[in-house]
Write the structure tokens for this entry.
Amino acid sequence: MVKYDKFLIKIARKGVFGKALRFIPGYSFRMIHYWPENNFKWTDKKVTFCLSFDCDNKEDEDAFPCLMDILGYHNIKSSFAVCGQRVEESPDAYRLLIKSGHEIMNHGYSKHSQAFPDGKVLSTLFYNDLDEKKIFDEIRNNHHIVKDVLGYDMVGFRTPHFGTFQKREQILLIHSILKRVGYLYDSSALMITAKGLNLLNASNFIEFPLTSIVGLPDSVFDSWGFLKAADRARRDGDFVKYFKMMIDVALKSRRPILLNIYLDPSHIINFEGFKITLDYLDMASDYIFNDTYRNLLIK
């Protein structure tokens, strides 16, 4: 079965073969997202659900108070990827996240995007343009800033604009740097990439890969693609549709499943579909375990 799964993961990344897997979306999704049982030690429930947020600009910070209320109402614990320059400028915003019981994770020191009044967002920093020393400095400097300003020790990382940093050598470089910093995990790889590189079986460092859209194994479930991208192929209502489909498909698995989606606070704070998806998650709470990456590894 394991060899067969690896074969399907390999062909999922090949043009026509990947398209063929869309005709068996439920099976291919479960096959790609199942978690090695020897590392699935934090719960007896069938599905683990991790929710994270990338905090890239002031608009995201402005959404924090309302977002804390929503997550608190649904008893959801989340991980927030933050950059050091924003923490320096708005420390109280990030103290609220910690006070509310959520995790802070490293997202590099420098600002890497800029939002404009008309709603457009410009990406300004990509790690594939940086050498190893610069990447190391970005991660290390942010760790020290968050420690000094917030008194918080981060243990994990997400690469800014990680979709441009999915090559084997890039993922392994990030892992090498994070181990040198003393971190416990990364959450920057697509699930299909992590499975292909066998990144889920490490004992002292682990990758929490991002979940794909059911039927699209080489995609990522995020708020940008569903709600904000100018060339998006899906619409607002599809966010709820595919979220429910993801939950339903995962619950049919015979093996442990990790669901790990990331959103941007400013994208979803006024989006009614976000609350609908959390209501749906509540309905399946007997079978789904939620916590932060940090707590999964340290508790």
